[in-house]
Amino acid sequence: MKKKLLAATLAAAMTASLTACGGSDSAQEKGDGVSITIFNSKIEVQAQFEEMAKEYSEATGVNVEVYYSNDTVAAHLATRYSSNDPYTLSMVDAKDVYSLAEDHAIDLSGEKWVENTNYALSVGGKVVGFPVCVEARGLIYNGDAIEKITGEAFNPEDYATLDAFQGLLEKLAAGGMETPTGIMKEDWSLAGHFLSEVYEMQDDVDGFITSLHEGTADLANNAKWNGKMDYFDTMMKYNYAASSAIAAEREVSEQKLAEGEIAFMFGGNWDWSMINAYEYSENMGIMPVPENTSDGSNKKLVGGGSKYFFIDSSENTSEEQRQAAKDFLNWLVFDEAGNAFLTEKCALVPAYKNIAAAGLDPLSLSVKSYADAGNLIDNYNYLPDDHFSLCGAAFQKYLAGQTDRAGLAKEVEAYWASTAPVER
Question: How far apart are the C-alpha atoms of 231 and 165, rounded to whole Å?
């Protein structure tokens, strides 16, 4: 009932806003007969986007179709370009914007929303990337599950070090939660999100990546690598699926975390789109990955602008379609229904100062609090397209006990040494 009510509210709000605000008549006129396509690379919100497209089409007269693909973004979009059938709007990662914008994106510098965000992407002095949201990752916790066993209020900042975190896990295990952690096996989680923190937390990120490409990096003796792997080993020790780690299904892990069967799992605020399908605890949030370090990185999440829209610049997209795409982006930022779609339906942390976020879910509220305090370490946006799959496969071997830390380090080093740097 709640979803149906929200859908009805959004549809009504769309119609009301378009008929009540200045320029609404022209928006309706422009909508007549115009069709736009949207590529969505964020599977967690595909259903929400499809539902929104129907409601938006009915309210505006613009026919909107949303597509998703399991292929890598670069490969999928290349196929569309080669067939002269590009998407009007493509929602991709920052690295994709950097590699595609010069040939495929229009200049959005003059758009009003640019003034309302700190996360717009520019290439060649022109704004080309519309930030959809702010995302961050760290260690998701279920505070209620922890407090039920310890009998004490759970304060994430008390467990910033690995030593303190290990002590808490021991207490949980002794108190009846024998396996308080969960680990996602997916390559995008292991390599795309966790392993990348090893790069993102280096003193000189670009210099470190260069050393990896040149084959001169020494992961085995790198402090950040070992700090992260010490944490990962601790998670493996208490993993509820330790005996079959590679067979663990994400949905099962999310449910166990939501309902308090486990207390911790590495992830990001995007995980709420799955957690909220279960009987979740209200006292949940995201904390930095515990690490025995003095550099302050164990007091910050990793994140920033996440997923960006760009509008196709080719002759295969008409000016009417481009204007309709711009109108859609403005709807997301300046219309109450667009705001509600981002924050309520998709559970996304807005990248725009004017969008209220009081109704965000617990994970997103955590991210917003770290972002507002300036406690986000920037994402590294130039991972090669096959980093997830190849380094993820290597990390899965480690998770399955088929290689040791030294072996994993060598595989990661070998990957980078044989991979060309991503063009900027």
Answer: 9
